[in-house]
Amino acid sequence: MSARPSNRAPDEMRTVTLERGVARYAEGSCLVKFGETHVLVTASVEERAPGWLRGSGKGWVTAEYSMLPRATHERTRREVTSGKPSGRTQEIQRLIGRSLRSVVDLRGLAERQITVDCDVIQADGGTRTASITGAWVALNDCLNWMMTRQMISVNPLRQNLAAVSCGIVGGVPVLDLDYAEDSTAQTDANFVITGTGGIVEVQGTAEGAPFSEDELFGMMQLAKKGVAELVALQKQAVA
C-alpha cells in the first residue's frame, strides 16, 4: 500500500477535538472535529415524551442530522426546500438516535425527550461517526444541566459511546477514513462502540470485491483502538 493521502499510519486517527459549550442557548453542546470534518452538536430537553410513551414513566432520546449547503465542495440544496429529508439523512439520524439510547437509562429521564441536533459545518468523510462521538458529549452536558436543576437525581448515561470509520484501502485495513480514502476504498465500514468495548452497531459495505472475515476482524481491531482514543478524549473533555 502507498502512503495514505494524509500521510497517517494505517492505525492513526485524524486530529480530534471536542469543544464544549459552544451554543449559548442549548442545554448541552459540542463542536467536534475529526480532521477537516466539523460538526456542531446541540442537545435540547423538552418536558414531554413522545405520545406513545405517555404513562410509561420513560423518556426518549432522538436525533436529527443535516449538512449545511456548503459543507461540501459544491453547494447542496437545503433539504427543507424539497419538503423531506433524504434517505441518507434519515438513516444517519436514526443511527445516531439508537446509538445514544443504547447507553441511556430512559427511565432516568422520566417522561421527557432530549433531541440531539447534528449539523455538519464541513464534511471530509466520517460525518456520522464524528456526530455520534460529539453527541455523547453534548448529551452528557445536557443531563448534567438537568441534574443541577433537580430535574433528575442522577445522570442516566451508563457509559461512554463513540464511533469511527474503517476501510480497506489498497488491500490494507485503515482507521478513520477521510473523503479521499472513503471515495476510493474497496470496503467502507462504521463501528459504534461503548466505552467498555460493547458493539452497538457495525455498518460495512464492499464497494468492489467482497471482504473477508479476516479483513472484518482487522477493521474491528482498528475500530476498538480508535474508539478507545475517542473515549479518552471524551473523558478529558467532560472532566
Automatic annotation (TrEMBL):
Residues given in the record as phosphate binding sites? R88, G126, T127, R128
Q: Which reaction does it catalyse?
A: tRNA(n+1) + phosphate = tRNA(n) + a ribonucleoside 5'-diphosphate
Q: Does the keyword Nucleotide-binding apply?
A: no
- Judged by the first EC level, this protein's enzyme class is transferase
Q: Which UniProt keywords apply?
A: Nucleotidyltransferase, RNA-binding, rRNA processing, Transferase, tRNA processing, tRNA-binding
A Pfam family for this UniProt protein?
A: RNase_PH
Among HAMAP family, the record links this protein to: RNase_PH (MF_00564)
- State what this protein does: Phosphorolytic 3'-5' exoribonuclease that plays an important role in tRNA 3'-end maturation. Removes nucleotide residues following the 3'-CCA terminus of tRNAs; can also add nucleotides to the ends of RNA molecules by using nucleoside diphosphates as substrates, but this may not be physiologically important. Probably plays a role in initiation of 16S rRNA degradation (leading to ribosome degradation) during starvation.
Q: Which family does it belong to?
A: Belongs to the RNase PH family.
User: Subunit structure of this entry?
Assistant: Homohexameric ring arranged as a trimer of dimers.
Q: What name does the UniProt record give this protein?
A: Ribonuclease PH
Q: What is the lineage of its organism?
A: Bacteria, Pseudomonadati, Pseudomonadota, Alphaproteobacteria, Hyphomicrobiales
What gene name does this entry carry? rph
